[in-house]
Amino acid sequence: MDTMEKTTTRSLLLDEGIILQSGTICRDKINLISGAMTAPLLETIWIFSGYDTEAMERISAIFTHLYHEDREAEMMAILRILYDLSGMKFPEDVELLATHPEARQYFLISFLLDMEDCMHDFMDEFVVNRNEI
Length: 133
Hints:
Elements: H1 3-15, H2 27-48, H3 53-68, H4 72-86, H5 92-97, H6 101-132
Helix pairs in contact: 2-6, 3-4, 3-6
């Protein structure tokens, strides 16, 4: 990335509130981005999979494994693939924050935590709905 691109990217990160003037990441903003994008993506995958809990658990396991192996680039690549397969547009905010190593890392752990919460909610709701039938 050349100097002009770095300046433009930093300016966009500031404009979007992903980093603060001090250069530190804004954890609240990154949490909001993660929360806003995780549920719709996972709900789409959950429905497309035919409510397959094992498929969802495999997705979670691969993301968790990659995170613990510090393989952020692979996590982002898989996330893009899941968006492509779901017919959804990859969020511009995520595209932008992926250019900043600390923001990307914080986003990915936020995504993992949000994913776990969403999956539990979907699976709990599925069990309740099955029991009502």
